[in-house]
Design a protein that fits this description.
The protein is an alpha/beta fold and 550 residues long. The protein has helices at 9-13, 17-22, 77-82, 84-87, 132-144, 163-173, 228-244, 262-279, 293-296, 316-321, 326-343, 371-380, 439-442, 449-462, 465-468, and strands at residues 30-32, 38-40, 43-45, 58-61, 102-105, 109-110, 121-125, 148-153, 187-188, 200-202, 211-213, 248-251, 284-287, 304-305, 387-389, 470-473, 482-488, 491-498, 504-507, 516-521, 528-531, 534-537, 541-547.
Amino acid sequence: MKRWLCAVLAAMLLGCCAALAEEEYSGPDYQINADGEAVVDDVTLTGLQTPDDNARVFYEIFVGSFSDSDGDGIGDLRGIISRMDYLNDGDPFSGVSLGVEGIWLTPIFASPTYHKYDVTDFYRVDPAFGTEEDLKELISLCHSRDVKIILDLPINHTATDNRWFRNFVNAHLMHNPHNSYYNFFNWLGEGEQAAAGKHYAKAMGTGMDLRYEANFSDSMPEPDFDQPLVRETFLNVALHYLELGVDGFRFDAAKYIYYGDNQKSAEFWDWYVGELKKAKPDLYAVAEVWDGDGVIDRYVPIMNCFNFTASQVSGIIAETAQAGNVNRFTAYIQRTAERLQALRQDAMNVLFISNHDMDRAVGYLPMTSGRMAVAANLYLLSPGSPFIYYGEEIGLRGSRGAANTDANRRLAMLWGDGDTVSDPEGATLAKNKQTPYSVSDLKRMSTSLLNHYKKLLMIRKANPEIARGDYHALTLEGTKMGGFVSTWNGSSVLVLHNTTMKPLTLDLSEAALAQYTRIVGAPGIGRAILEGTVLTLEAQTSAVLREEGR
């Protein structure tokens, strides 16, 4: 049976030209062992019948940069449909698809910009992306493969071309305060001054001194969520898409609903999410609260929030992946779980390395150093609902750079099969973005980063305790090896990580872990070797162990 483990670091992470020439990898073999378990390479698939809950691995797709179905250079919904076999082919044994369990689509609504965060019509799919029928087909396809789909819902602001804003301006032009749209957006009356930190733009071409709140951009006016009509309007938008079948939402700029007032913003979301859960009790809701834990914790009692503290170059994931002490990382994960669950019993940690607003992780976690793969081990083999940013799994590059534009963080996915998707408007890094290989190249290299991600997701799915169990960080003295035990439904799993460049050993009996006698997964560049009770983890390698017969 082929193996995914390789002792050569460069071959593991990049797959060199020689590696590609040596083998044409079409995916792992699998067989059924004596215990009736499926084994894919060295991953024992013991727990594939996991519950239909929200402890899933999601994949963020910046729609316009992902896959183009009609040759216009812009990614679209049919492009995503055509890539479902890449994302999840519906066969947990295949090892061919990435195996993600959820998809986050950045805004798909009608908008004048490439990024679509300034919406002109929330009830219309942007024509560049397709139609509502395409969206329905994608939802149906996802659900047929047990993949949840969430939409990015940017209700904190609209576009100035939005009809609600036009109605607002017209109501002021007519000096008609009785018009229902007169107070739809925040505005300053004559002689009023903007509160400190807030920005107001002037409605141009009206002949009036009408100034509306626009903290993100003059082209993004901000609704007044004290108005019942505003609340009803945006609630109906979300309910419309729940009726179409989406599983939930990512709420953009959640802390800015009431700019500078987290208490009022949290109170709004408490009402809003509560109303949505009346329609869909298992709603997947995750908020962008880009701030420290103290602010994030105001929103956790309502819904899950992305863990910004652990992300980016300064976060604990990247720090630990660079040969850091795993014991510090696992202690942090446990503290975070305890903090979140004290605020809401079913709260989940939502880990990620980077997203569409951040420089891509491969810029500070080079594949050639092994750190990108190690970082993936750390956060994907952690509890909760982690998010992968599209292209992360192939080492796609992208940073703001000297041009200082987020378009450089949202470059076109590299498929290598003739896909015509192009870089977004304003991108300047096209000549420097190229990873050594495309998806087409990497999927044929048994030791590529792409196949490493596939393996990680199989391990996570095969061991449901990792995502949803009772997490206990280990305290291992005198070693940078670290890990945790997670127990769920009476079954436990042991996960250990070595993020260093040298082999590390651990006597499981001395750590009171001798009952874990089976290695059921070993993602990394080296091997996990268990001799008696002594476990050796080679450089930049992790291990998942179970008890005999469990």
